[in-house]
Amino acid sequence: MKPLRIFIFFLAVLLLLLLLSLLFPKQGIGVGGDLRLSFMSLSDLIQEDSTATPADVELLLAASSVSDDPESEPETEMFPGIGEAVEASELQVIPANADSLKHEVHRIQFAEENVSLFYPFFRNLDQIASGHNRPTRILHFGDSQIENDRMTALIRYRMQRNFGGTGTGLVQA
Known about the structure:
The protein is mainly alpha-helical. It has a domain at 110-167. The chain is 40% helix and 3% strand. The protein is built from 7 helices and 2 strands, in the order αββαααααα. Strands 1-2 form a two-stranded antiparallel ribbon. Strand 1 (29-31) and strand 2 form a beta hairpin.
């Protein structure tokens, strides 16, 4: 497909979405009893992000260094004051869209809070360490590019220390 046709296609889709955002009612369209279809308006797209806070870049860069032995790294206190009492005057209220918060909160869920679901996994790892099972490959997909491989390196280090194994993980191309 030619680049001009691709551009025209994207432009047509954007115009269609713009038209839909202008014509769609703000309160949404009721479909059945509790179900409501809603679509973002043009003002939602143009609105400035009020939740953005400036970050201390030097502190973040200092905390993102990775060594060969992740457990030997000194602890860096990223958020000093966590767990300390805070006065009400110091609290910053950040406005949020209640509807989006209903849909964005996700917790790790176990069936009936049953942590024993992991027992077979760790039993298998123990058998691998003792030589009774063949090696198993584990892929941890996280935000390694963002964190500079901190979490993945620590998980890999501890798994190899406790259960044996080798490898550096996936190598970037």
